[in-house]
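pasting for ref
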Amino acid sequence: MSNQELRWNLTSVGLILVGLLGAIYTVVQLGAYLASGLLLLVAVAGAFLLLQRQKAYSITLLIAGVLSLIFAVVGYLNQGFVTLTILYVLLAIVGIIRGGQAYRAVV
């Protein structure tokens, strides 16, 4: 197994763990079920990456990023600048940028 393959596997396992642990944390601490669902989408994207399905990985991350951006705007308009809005903005940035990079690499 090459060094590149080991990095891909480590990245995908990291995405799965961060997505699952983040989903559990947001439900327990914040009670945010939408944020939990978006983090589960990130975990699903990590599973796609582990299965070598790069196009599905990129599309899943793009969907999670766009939904996070929509939720961030709606959350900011309703509640202002709170912890959940920051979570949505960060997830939108990561999802759109990394998903876009992965989509350009695949297509």
